[in-house]
Amino acid sequence: xxxxxxxxxFRFGPHVKEARARHQPIVALETVVVAFGLxxxxxxxxxxxxxxxxxxxxxxxxxxxxxxxxxxxxxxPAELERFAGDEHVRKVSRRDLPIVLARRQIGATTVAATAxxxxxxxIRVVATGGIGxxxxxxxxxxxxxxxxxxxxxxxxVCSGAKAILDLQATREWLETYGVPILGWGTETLPAFYxxxxxxxxxxxxxxxxxxxxxxxxxxxxxGKGILVxxxxxxPVAVPLDRLEGVVREALEEAERRGIRGWxxxxxxxxxVAERTGGESVQVNHALLVENARIAARIARALEAxxxxx
Length: 309
Hints:
Helix content is about 45%, strand content about 15%.
């Protein structure tokens, strides 16, 4: 029995279908942040703000999620609301795709699943908050975000890996697998809630046009993913030393309580939010919108580059 990903399992929202016909720049957005990343009602508000930020920069947002046995590229506002409030939404990375599609469940896409879907339909730019990475004290526990970056030709715009992870090991993993790490206006890797981890990026970039040129050459040479890291807006960024203390306490609590596997990340993020008095949620909100804005500029620059003779 044959299967076609081209027609059967993908559906485009009306606005994305029109954008593709007009060759407009498109930015893919994930849905895990809507379903699991932020509390209500901030989750839906941020999702709409990210889409508006993309539009304000002259690109078209394509928020991706799984509904009724299909990967939807460009959720409508009504569809997006289902991800913000339905308790049956399932978190979907690449391994979960066939299961959730076969069962016709509601699936919120991670960075990995979003980047995979975007690449399947020719979208080259993804905006998110923070990527997954190598877990602290468990170097064998690697988020699927990393191998997806190593195998899919997309630019992922984020504020680094989540600060609860082993940032040094994550950076080294990306280096080993040939994923360039670019710093938007910075020479050091952001630490999600904090402006700098102290680790170097591979190159500082100061314009979307420069990123587009680098990406074009990277892909022409057979490369795949590129990571563009954007520091969180300065007024809301959390100092790294303060954040590190909060993360260590949360990790120790998780160890005492025997929390393992997929449950670790949401537990740690919730504890960080509690122990920063909700400050981390404000940072997350601000950086998500800023990353969407910059991703739209990059998508425009890539589209302009593709039109050059």
